[in-house]
Design a protein that fits this description.
This protein is mostly beta strands. Helices cover 1% and strands 50% of the residues. The strands form eleven sheets. A six-stranded mixed sheet has the order 2-3-10-9-5-7, with no helix packed on it. The chain has a six-stranded mixed sheet with strand order 12-13-20-19-15-17, with no helix packed on it. Strands 22-23-29-28-25-26 form a six-stranded mixed sheet, with no helix packed on it. Strand 41 and strand 42 form a beta hairpin. The chain is flat, with a radius of gyration of 51 Å.
C-alpha cells in the first residue's frame, strides 16, 4: 500500500509597483496642444503612420484605436486592435475620399486616440497610456478638363482649329483629353448639321483616366461631291466632360472647321523616258548590241504636278523573265528611276544572226478623283552576231598557285578577313562571264561574298570572307573548303569555251594565343610544388596572381585535391576578368584537422584559364602542398622563483614565458597559486598570465600548473621592500 504525500502551495500576490506602458509614433508632436499632427492631406490621398507600444517590465499589452470627434463607420480605415507581450507594433491606414468630409468644400479636422493598457499576471488591467493624433483633410477643388487636337492652326479666342484638305486625299487628326485632377474623363464629338457616318468620317468616343487619345479619320472619297459643297466650311464640335467624385462635372468644347478643296482641274499627263537615244521618226528609243554584251539603261517617270506615279515595263510579245531581262516596277512621288539590265547570250538569237526585241515602259498617274493619265516609252533592242575565230578564256586569282596540287591554296583564321581577287581574261577580248561556286555547299550559307560578273574581257571580282567559329569542323578542328571559279566565253555563238580553277581554303582557329601565367607570393618549392610547413594554430596566407600576355579575359580558381576548401575552413575567392587578377588564400588549421595525428599534409591546386576564339581555353596550374604538425612539448623548463613588485622594471610580476608548448593532446589548462596555509590567492587559464602579488605579504607561495595530462608544482618567493 502506497503512502500518501501532501503538497502545500501558497500563492502570494506581487505587491511591487507596476511601471506604466508607453505608446509612441513617428509623427511630429505639438507640445502646445499635446497632440501628434499628420501633414494635411487632400481628399483621395492615403493617411498612414505606425503606432508602437512598449512596457518596461515586458507585461502583456492591449493596443486599441478610438475616434474622438468622428465615427470610423463607413470610412476606409484599417487598424486592427492588437494584443500581446511588449513590444507591439501596428499601422494605421486611411484611404480618404470625398464622403469623409461633412462639407466637400471645407477642410475638416479629425481627432483620434490610440490607447495601450498593460495587464498583470491575473489579467487585470493596471496602467494605460494614450496618444492623440490630429489629421486635417483638405478638399480638392475641381478644375476643368482640357481638350486639344494636333491641327496646327488654332484660334484661341474662339477655341477653333482650322485646316484645308483635298478631295480624294485621306485626312486624319488626333484629339487629346487631360484633367488637372486626374478625374475620369469622356470625349465625344458631333458634326454641326450632319452625322459623321453620313460623310464617312470615322470617330470613336472614348472614356477613362487621362491622358486620353482618339482619332478622326476621313478618307474624303471622290463621291463626296454629291454630299457637300467643295470649298465651303464643314464644322465639327468635340466635347470633354470630367467625373469628379466631390463636385459637379465640368465641360469644355472645341470647334474644328475643315474646308475640302477640289482636285487640280488642269492636271497634265506624266512622261516616260529612257537614257537611250530617241528616234523621232519611229517615235521610240533604239540600241544595237552584239551577243555577249550587257544592255544597261535607266527608265524615268516624271509628272509636272509631282503626282503619285507607277512605272512599269513589259515585253511586246514576250516576257522579260524568259530572256533573263531585269527590270523592277516602282511607284512613288516623281522623279522615278528604275534600271533595265540584260546579259545577252547566243541562245537569245534562237539560231538566227539577228533578232529585234520591242520593250514598253509605262508611266501611270495614280491620283484619286482624277482621270487616269499615262505615257509610254518604246525601246527597240537589235541583237546581232557575226562569226569569227575564237580562243579559250582564262581564269586566275591573286593567290599563289600550287603546281603540285593543281590549285590555289590559302590559310584563313576565325574572325580574320580573307580577301583575294579573281580574274577572267580572253585573248579575243570577247564578252565573258566570271562565276564562283562552293564545292559541296553554297557560298552564301557560309557568308562568303563573291559577285558574279559579265562583260568584255578582262574582268575581275573580289572574294571576301570573314570566317566564324561555326564554320570550323567538329570540336573546332581545322576545316578545308574548296571554291571553284569559272570563266565562260559568251561572245562566240559557234563554240562556247570555258576555264576553271579551284581555291583550297584551310580554316583554323586562332593559333597565336599565348597561354596565361600564374604566380604566388610563396617562395619555397620542391619539384615545381610550393611547400608550406607550419605548426597547428598558425595562420597561412599567400596570394595567387593570374596574368595573360594577350590581355584576354581570365579566370583564377582554387581547389582542394580530394576535398573541398570550405570543408576545412580554407578561404579563397575565385575571380575572373581582364588581367591582372589576384586572390588571397587564408587558413588557420586547428587540432580538429590533425584528428589525433602528429602531422598531416594536404595539397591545393590553383588554375588560371583564358578564353580564346570559339570557346577554346588555355590554362596554367600551380600546386601548393601544406603540412600541419602538432607542437612538441618540452618536459623540463625552469621558471623564475622570485619576483619583486617594486616597479623597477625587473621581475615586477610572476610569469612563466617558457611554459611547454600546447599540443593537441595536452593543452594548457591553468595555474593556481596558494599561500603557505593552502589558501588560493591567484588563478588564471591564460598561459600568458602575470601575478603582481599586490595586497599579499612577502614570503613563499606555492603554484600548481596544469596541462590536460600533466601537472607541474613549484614555489616562488614574493619579496617586498
Amino acid at each position: 500500500m502506497m503512502a500518501e504525500t501532501c503538497l502545500n502551495v501558497k500563492v502570494i500576490r506581487d505587491t511591487t509597483e507596476n511601471l506604466p506602458p508607453e505608446i509612441t509614433t513617428n509623427l511630429d508632436f505639438d507640445p502646445m496642444a499635446g497632440v501628434y499632427r499628420y501633414d494635411s492631406v487632400f481628399v483621395g490621398e492615403t493617411v498612414t503612420f505606425p503606432i508602437n507600444a512598449t512596457d518596461p517590465e515586458g507585461d502583456s499589452l492591449a493596443l486599441s484605436f478610438l475616434p474622438f470627434n468622428f465615427s470610423a463607420d463607413g470610412r476606409n480605415i484599417t487598424f486592427a486592435p492588437t494584443n500581446g507581450f511588449s513590444p507591439l507594433n501596428a499601422t494605421f491606414t486611411w484611404q480618404t475620399s470625398c464622403k469623409d468630409l461633412d462639407n466637400p468644400r471645407v477642410a475638416q479636422e479629425f481627432i483620434m486616440d490610440f490607447i495601450v493598457r498593460d495587464f498583470d499576471a491575473c489579467g487585470v488591467a493596471e496602467n494605460a497610456d494614450t496618444l492623440r493624433v490630429v489629421v486635417v483633410l483638405l478638399p480638392r477643388p475641381n478644375l476643368p478638363p482640357l481638350i486639344t487636337t494636333d491641327i496646327p492652326n488654332f484660334e484661341a479666342a474662339t477655341k477653333t482649329y482650322r485646316d484645308t484638305l483635298t478631295l480624294g486625299v485621306p485626312y486624319q487628326f488626333k484629339i487629346f483629353g487631360d484633367d488637372p485632377n486626374n478625374d475620369k474623363i469622356f470625349i465625344t464629338g458631333n458634326g454641326v448639321g450632319f452625322n459623321f457616318a453620313d460623310l464617312g468620317i470615322q470617330f470613336t468616343p472614348v472614356e477613362g483616366f487621362p491622358i486620353l487619345e482618339t482619332e478622326v479619320v476621313w478618307n474624303t472619297p471622290c463621291d463626296l461631291v454629291e454630299k457637300i459643297n467643295l470649298g465651303q466650311p464643314i464644322e465639327m464640335r468635340f466635347q470633354i466632360r470630367d467625373e469628379n467624385p466631390c463636385e459637379n462635372s465640368l465641360n469644355e468644347e472645341i470647334i474644328v472647321i475643315l474646308v475640302v478643296m477640289p482636285p487640280n482641274p488642269n492636271n497634265q499627263a506624266p512622261e516616260a523616258s529612257t537614257s537611250l537615244v530617241f528616234n523621232p521618226a519611229q517615235e521610240r528609243y533604239e540600241i544595237e548590241v552584239e551577243v555577249g554584251q550587257q544592255v544597261n539603261f535607266d527608265v524615268f517617270a516624271d509628272d509636272p504636278e509631282n503626282n503619285y506615279l507607277l512605272l512599269s515595263g513589259e515585253g511586246v510579245g514576250f516576257n522579260f523573265a524568259d530572256f533573263g531581262m531585269e527590270f523592277t516596277d516602282v511607284e512613288g512621288v516623281p522623279q522615278l528611276v528604275s534600271p533595265f539590265k540584260w546579259q545577252t547570250l547566243c541562245e537569245h538569237l534562237e539560231g538566227r544572226n539577228e533578232r529585234e526585241f520591242l520593250l514598253r515602259f509605262i508611266a501611270t498617274e495614280k491620283v484619286d478623283c482624277q482621270p487616269i493619265l499615262a505615257d509610254t516609252a518604246l525601246v527597240l533592242i537589235r541583237l546581232r552576231y557575226a562569226a569569227r575565230p575564237n580562243e579559250a578564256p582564262e581564269v586566275s586569282t591573286s593567290l599563289t598557285f600550287d603546281n603540285a596540287a593543281g590549285l590555289y591554296r590559302v590559310r584563313a583564321e576565325v574572325n580574320q578577313p580573307l580577301t583575294f581577287n579573281v580574274f577572267g581574261d580572253d585573248p579575243d577580248l570577247d564578252f565573258i562571264g566570271l562565276e564562283g561556286y562552293g564545292v559541296g555547299y553554297d557560298l552564301n550559307d557560309l557568308g562568303m561574298q563573291f559577285e558574279n560578273s559579265f562583260g568584255q574581257a578582262p574582268l575581275s571580282s573580289p572574294f571576301r570572307w570573314t570566317p566564324a567559329c561555326e564554320n570550323l569542323g567538329a570540336n573546332n578542328r581545322d576545316t578545308t573548303y574548296l571554291v571553284e571559279f569559272l570563266v565562260t566565253d559568251i561572245g562566240n555563238c559557234d563554240r562556247i569555251l570555258t576555264d576553271t580553277v579551284r581555291v583550297e581554303i584551310l580554316l583554323t582557329p586562332d593559333l597565336r594565343n599565348t597561354p596565361p601565367t600564374i604566380a604566388t607570393t610563396l617562395t619555397d618549392s620542391l619539384n615545381g610544388v610550393f611547400i608550406v610547413d607550419v605548426p597547428v594554430g598558425t595562420n597561412i596566407s599567400f596570394d595567387l596572381i593570374g596574368d595573360d600576355a594577350d590581355n584576354e579575359r581570365i579566370s583564377l580558381s582554387g581547389f582542394g585535391v580530394g576535398f573541398n576548401l570550405a570543408d576545412l575552413g580554407m578561404q579563397f575567392e575565385n575571380v575572373e576578368g581582364l588581367p591582372t587578377q589576384s586572390s588571397t588564400f587564408s587558413w588557420t588549421p586547428d587540432c580538429s584537422f590533425l584528428d589525433g595525428a602528429s602531422e598531416k599534409t594536404v595539397e591545393t591546386l590553383f588554375i588560371v584559364e583564358d578564353e580564346t576564339k570559339c570557346g577554346l581555353r588555355a590554362s596554367a596550374p600551380l600546386s601548393v602542398r601544406i603540412t600541419v604538425r602538432d607542437n612538441i612539448q618540452v618536459e623540463n623548463f625552469l621558471p623564475a622563483n622570485v619576483f619583486t613588485p617594486n616597479n623597477d622594471g625587473f621581475n615586477d610580476t610572476f610569469r612563466i614565458p617558457n611554459l611547454p608548448l600546447n599540443t593537441c593532446d595536452n593543452p594548457f589548462v591553468g595555474i593556481k597559486i596558494f599561500n603557505r596555509w593552502g589558501v588560493l590567492v591567484f588563478e588564471s587559464q591564460d598561459r600568458n598570465f602575470e601575478w603582481d602579488g599586490k595586497g599579499f605579504a612577502a614570503g613563499t607561495y606555492f603554484y600548481l600548473i596544469e596541462f590536460k595530462d600533466q601537472t607541474y608544482k613549484n614555489w616562488v618567493s614574493l619579496l617586498v621592500e
